[in-house]
Amino acid sequence: MKLITTTDALESFCAAAHDAPYVTIDTEFLRERTYYSKLCLLQMALPGPDGPEDGPAVLVDPLAEGISLDPFYALLRDQSTVKVLHAARQDLEIFFIEGGVLPDPLFDTQIAAMVCGFGDQAGYETLVRKLTKGRIDKSSRFTDWSRRPLSDAQLSYALADVTHLRVIYEKLAAKLSANGREGWVAEELATLNDPATYVTQPQEAWMRVKTRNDSGRFLAILRELAAFREDYAQSRNVPRSRVFKDDALLELASVKPRATEDLSRTRLLMREARKGDIAQGIVEAVKRGLDCPPDAFPSLPGIRENMNVNPALADLLRVLLKAKSDATGVAARLIASAADLDALAAGLRDVPALSGWRADVFGQDALRLCDGAVGLAVRGERVTVVALPQ
Predict the structure, then answer these.
(1) Tell me, what DSSP letter sits at residue 55?
(2) 3-state class of 389 per DSSP?
(3) Deepest in the core among 73, 114, 126, 208, taking most CB within 10 A?
(4) 52 domain residue, yes or no
């Protein structure tokens, strides 16, 4: 296996990649001690002239002294070469944050697998086993990729993440071409290729925190506390949990400390956060939340005011979704979310399940079911849609 440690060697491989129809890509990174992921290893492989498994594959050490990843970022911009990744979101975030670039064109094998009948969240190991008949050595999965030198076992494990991916890509691409679902995958990839996907605005950070408390005042304080935490973590490149954890965030939003002295009475806030800049930031955030006028209160994502869900209709929509998922082989959660179903059962129509390919697969029949134009019938082991007399 080849470990690239210089810019010249990387540029040489990328030059070959520019002439290839596709390149498979993966990364190894650390994020336990930082806000932003630290790229520790980059893996790439190309198809060979006699088959996907015959091409060259390399490992790139981004921590090597003096190396520049500019040739790689130029490759990501090359529209003549498809960039193939599996479960690409975290990898793409690294490329966007560090290189200011997103790969174009992009192919995500996990999304393609979900469209092609491999389940709700097809793991790489599963696809390797089913599509290549190979196996992955998992012994190096949980290792410190920032330590040098890397062991032979680590390097072999990392390389397998892109070598098997060549066969997986070609088989999934062929299946999509045969079933005419390339456009479905393209719709899903649009979100991954949107720069806004990888930028967390502090004022929107509260929506990541799970809570059932829908009090406007509580959510206003929660929003300000989460915004302070996000800004603090970003500016110092530390994990959010190093500032304070979600359970402490929810406690603070409930008890509403007015002064730093009040923080000593919290149970879940770490001792380091009860003094200094963090303590002062907490108190100021709580004050902003308390001062927020009612007409500026946030509401929980997915919760619509006065949404009156018809529970019987929601149950029927779930049965319909399962039937459509079984019939098409497309993962149910990719077709429609639970929030989509509840919104439809409440009479709302501005839901993702009613647009694009989802409308053809599920949305149109879902609307007809809601309007009483069709019903559901059991035919053997299958649920089918039947027209109802009007």
Answers:
(1) S
(2) coil
(3) 114
(4) yes
